[in-house]
Design goal:
Elements (H helix, E strand, L loop, with lengths): L2 H12 L9 E11 L5 E10 L12 E2 L13 E10 L2 H13 L14 E3 L3 E3 L21 E8 L6 H5 L1 H12 L15 E7 L3 E6 L7 E7 L8 E9 L2 E11 L2 E4 L8 E7 L5 E8 L4 E9 L4 E6 L5 E6 L2 E9 L6 H20 L2 E4 L7 H17 L4 E4 L5 H6 L10 E6 L8 H10 L7 H12 L7 E6 L12 E4 L7 E4 L12 E5 L3 H14 L6 E4 L2
Parallel strand pairs: 2-8, 21-22, 22-23
Antiparallel strand pairs: 1-2, 1-4, 3-4, 5-7, 6-7, 7-8, 9-10, 10-13, 11-12, 11-14, 14-15, 16-19, 17-18, 20-26, 21-24, 23-27, 24-25, 25-26
Helix pairs in contact: 1-2
Length: 545
């Protein structure tokens, strides 16, 4: 889609009565300003709205938040969110200016952007059983849905710090949400973009499935000022990526029945203006409620009384109020039908896939067998090979030079930045081993960093293609940690991280679980915080260059 095509599509939808009776634009702009620099667009949302016909060309912006200054990674920047009301005609004028000059001026003044390119037109339905991510930033999109046009900043260069540490975007989103109900922390792909929202307001659709019926009823409530017109609709249900029901009706005004049973599977639906061909309503995939559980919590008269030590070890009398929970189910009981067996199949398939991708692996060592140790090390090396092209971080309080030789040294990706972080602690040993070691030598034991350097100087080989830095917590900087993670911080579509479940020195020696973590960006940020804090020469044990 070109900007010219976008302008034509918007003009067509804005014709009075096509999808609404819009008389102004509510423009929300999340903006950022570096000290001494020009203000740039972080995210703009232009919502076509109704009920304010007196908007003038000279409307001034209203700032909905105080200046937001403390966003890590953006030193000497300030952020904020501004709302400006604009006449409808200003949108076409702004798109024309963008087409001819490349500047975005919908607020009445230029706003710094990257090169904005239009994406194909979209329609955002309200949330159903499936949630629509874009609804986190659209305004009140819970009736018929909205037409959405997106102008994308494809490079997003100023926002690199947000992608380097996702906590920064969460911090900005939280600060913005104080003044404006938009939550864009999970929508980093929208940074630098402009969204144009045209909600459908001429009617409100409803979808119902009468109990026991094998059909679905679609009804339309027309707005009092809108003229009813012929509509067309289509609906479908899916199961296991198969189409289990589908129907269309090409001419109705107020209601229609479609022979699609939505009791068994979620249903999705669209409605068009039959003559103009405009999409005027849609639903996301939505399930019919079959059973509801009610939990009732009754407080018991007698509390639990006991004594527990506080953080200083002093005994403290404690009291816990107890509740008894009973659950009542309303609706039909679950059957051992095809859905039940599909769930079993998906569970088995998921287990297989999780092990293949190493997203979840259990290790159960047997007595006098090293098979699980070898398997665990092989799995770690598999992950390093698969995801380590852009860098690997290894975080373990007991990480040693021997552990690095067993793991990061096996990275096949030449020049990939490898970082290893230890707490400078020797792995726990049993009492007999400690006693034997102390009796065997009267000389003072070298420090932990010196012992690690000695091993690496002896065994590191030629370090060809190896870019590894090994740091330890030492002195007042940093903090104690107990984390054990294998982290891939620089993957293009977002960081990945695995919890090792045990230290590298004990992989596969006792039951533990290797699993991918869902909050990888948070883990990456936590590692980066500690790594950055340990920035003095005394913290560097060894570098390969």
């Amino acid at each position: 889609m070109t900007i010219g095509q976008l302008r034509a599509a918007v003009r067509f939808l804005l014709a009075p009565g096509n999808i609404g009776e819009f008389d102004h634009i509510e423009l929300l702009e999340v903006i950022g300003t570096p000290r001494g620099g020009a203000t740039i667009n972080v995210l703009s949302i232009a919502v076509l709205s109704e009920g304010r016909r007196d908007v003038a060309e000279t409307e001034r912006p209203e700032f909905l938040t105080e200046r937001i200054r403390r966003i890590d990674g953006f030193r000497d920047w300030s952020f904020g969110v501004a709302r400006t009301f604009r006449p409808v005609a200003a949108l076409d004028s702004a798109l024309e200016t963008l087409e001819t000059t490349g500047r975005w001026t919908l607020s009445g003044r230029p706003l710094g952007t990257g090169t904005l390119r239009p994406e194909p037109a979209m329609f955002a339905p309200p949330d159903g059983t499936v949630r629509i991510p874009l609804n986190n930033v659209l305004k009140n999109n819970f009736w018929a849905g909205s037409h959405v046009f997106r102008l994308t900043d494809q490079e997003k260069t100023p926002f690199a710090p947000f992608f380097a540490d996702r906590r920064r975007l969460q911090a900005l989103s939280d600060a913005v949400s104080v003044g404006a109900p938009i939550a864009f922390a999970g929508l980093a792909d929208l940074l630098g973009d402009v969204l144009i929202q045209l909600p459908v307001t001429i009617m409100i659709p409803s979808v119902t499935s009468p109990r026991g019926a094998k059909h679905t009823e679609i009804a339309v409530t027309w707005r009092y000022s809108s003229t009813p017109r012929p509509l067309a609709t289509a609906a479908r249900t899916r199961w296991d990526e198969l189409l289990t029901g589908a129907a269309v009706h090409d001419r109705f005004t107020d209601s229609v029945q479609l022979p699609v049973d939505s009791h068994r599977q979620p249903l999705e639906m669209e409605i068009w203006d039959a003559d103009a061909g405009i999409l005027v309503g849609a639903t996301a995939s939505t399930s019919t409620i079959k059973r509801i559980a009610f939990d009732m919590h009754v407080i018991q008269h007698e509390p639990r009384l006991f004594t527990a030590p506080d953080v200083d070890g002093k005994p403290v009398a404690e009291r816990v109020e107890l509740t008894k929970t009973t659950t009542s189910l309303v609706g039909s009981a679950a059957d051992w039908d095809a859905n039940f067996w599909l769930g079993r199949r998906q569970d088995l398939e998921e287990r297989r896939l999780l092990e293949e991708t190493r997203d979840f692996v259990q290790y159960r060592p047997q007595t006098n067998s090293s098979a699980e140790q070898l398997r665990a090390l092989a799995d770690v090396r598999f992950l390093i090979d698969r995801y380590g092209q852009t860098g690997v971080d290894l975080w373990d309080p007991y990480l040693s030079a021997e552990d690095l030789l067993r793991t990061l040294f096996w990275c096949r990706h030449s020049g990939a930045p490898l970082r290893a972080l230890t707490d400078g602690r020797d792995a726990p040993r049993d009492d007999a081993e400690d006693c034997s070691a102390s009796q065997g030598s009267a000389a003072p034991r070298p420090s932990f960093p010196d012992r690690q350097r000695a091993v690496l100087e002896r065994d590191a080989g030629n370090c060809e293609g190896l870019r590894l830095e090994y740091r330890t917590r030492r002195g007042p900087k940093g903090w104690l940690f107990h984390d054990r993670f294998l982290i891939f911080p620089n993957i293009g579509n977002g960081p990945q991280a695995w919890s090792l479940g045990t230290s590298v020195n004990s992989l596969g020696q006792a039951h533990h679980i290797l699993q991918r973590v869902s909050s990888a960006a948070m883990v990456v940020g936590a590692f980066e915080d500690l790594w950055s804090a340990l920035d003095e020469p005394q913290h560097v044990i060894w570098r390969s260059w």
